[in-house]
Amino acid sequence: MSGVGPGRLFAVVGPSGAGKDTLMAAAWLRRPDLHLVRRVVTRAPGAGGEDCDCVSAAAFERMRAGGAFALWWRAHGLSYGIPRSVDEALWEGEDVVFNGSRAMLAEARARFPDLTVLHVMARPETLAARLAGRGRESAEEIAARLGRAGYALPDGIVAVRIDNDGALDDAVEAFLAALQPDRR
């Protein structure tokens, strides 16, 4: 399958700690018809944070070489994969939402030309507090992630900006509005 079908694909990107997974989960509670993609990550099980499939680097490489991923990338010393099952969900007409990376958007747009990008943002002090609260990174790792927080989207990528500094309900409303027209 080419990744083109009657469904719609949404990449949720933004700096670490912006609240991408929180927004996705809250949106799903209001729109359970959304197909939330569970990423495959080379992170130790129980490391906290997102709900993902944790695999070893060797297992990830076997999966990648075997064509298990529609998209994959490396960031923060980890490998991330979006399972090829997104193709089937799109062909079935589902609205598919995945937590992506700003660095892989050009490749994602090439593979999925109708991709919509939702860019979740938060102030640096909000990001710092959220990253510290996760408890999975050292102070040095948090500082490095904050240093990358201002990373721009690749040229040619247009995104819907979602501010996630205030009340979660406000950000969820903006997130859901970005998914319009709602095809329920």
Using only CA atoms, what is the Rg?
A: 16 Å
How many strands?
9
Strand content: 15-25%
Q: Structural class of the helices, strands and pairings?
A: alpha/beta
Kindly report the average pLDDT value. 89
CATH topology name of the domain at 8-37 and 93-178: Rossmann fold
Q: Cα distance, first to last residue?
A: 24 Å
Descriptive keywords:
single chain; alpha/beta; Rossmann fold; 5-stranded parallel β-sheet; 4-stranded mixed β-sheet; 7 helices; ATP-binding; ribose 1,5-bisphosphate phosphokinase activity; P-loop_NTPase; Ribose 1,5-bisphosphate phosphokinase PhnN
Structure write-up:
The chain is of the alpha/beta class. It has a domain at 8-37 and 93-178: Rossmann fold. The protein has helices spanning 20-30, 57-65, 85-91, 105-111, 124-134, 139-147, 168-178; strands at 8-13, 35-36, 40-41, 53-54, 69-75, 78-83, 95-99, 116-121, 159-163. A hairpin with a 2-residue loop joins β5 (69-75) and β6 (78-83). α1 (20-30) crosses α7 (168-178) and α5 packs antiparallel against α6 (139-147). The longest helix has 11 residues, at 20-30. It is globular, with a radius of gyration of 16 Å. The model has no long low-confidence stretch (mean pLDDT 89).
